[in-house]
Write the structure tokens for this entry.
Amino acid sequence: MGTSREKNRLKQLSVTAAISVAVVLIVIKLFAWYLTDSISLLSSLADSFLDFGASVINMIAIYHAAQPADDEHRFGHGKIEALAALLQSVIVIGSSCFLIKESIERFFNPQPLQHTLVGIFVMVASIILLIGLVAFQRHVIRKTNSLTIMADSTHYKGDLLLNLGVLISLGSYHLFGWGSIDAVFGAIISTYIIYTAYDISKSAFNILLDRELPLEDRTQILEIIEGHPKVKACTDLRTRSSGTSEFIYANVVFPATMSIKESSQVVKEIEKTILKVYPDSEILLHSTPHKKD
């Protein structure tokens, strides 16, 4: 997956791009909403404000998460990314509930829209910007597996869908005079954003509560350790993740006749093999002599 420095550089680049896009979207959507008075466009504008705030939080979180371990934080600062993702999820869910309420009120009390062509043009420009940003974020997630960037990308995917909905609602109003569809799209897309934010919050909780790595990762680690010809077994395997790092602890059982020097050498060989698969992991393997029955 690359070194920690490469991952941090990609993450910083991603949040910088996200903040830049969010600023542009806020400016053009504010202008378009002022002219059109569209509730779905207002929903999209509010979401862009939240995206901007969330991306700033992400930039701060990624900076602190990249700091090396110190005397007070011996396991590093990686969990701050999960905290940032959890905070974003709470903010997104709260704002989406507000927008659903506004959409319901607008559905029963529709308002005429103005200058819809300006709104349509702004939405097309927003969609083009967001497609580029989401594609880049997908690349960063694939390279870093960052929960923070994943949460940030969820915001912008939601914003992309929201913009598509706004485009459809403005186009429908412009062509057919359908006023209620504006509120319907605002409510549907806000509901979708709540669903995706909930998934992100679950992942953040798993990291904060030191949940074990996925079964396939634990199985692979066991196979590496027990696959060494001089190892009899691996016991008490414990794993967890924090930011982009994995922590792996286990007891490695050796034949009772093996010397301490030889078992230490085998442990080093196993650690090197694990580091090839998990280059940012911290590994602690304890040598245990096999007890004869």
Q: What stands out?
A: The beta strands are 233-242, 245-254, 282-289. The chain has two domains: 4-208, 215-289. The first strand starts at residue 233 and ends at 242. Residues 96 and 121 are 25 Å apart (CA to CA).
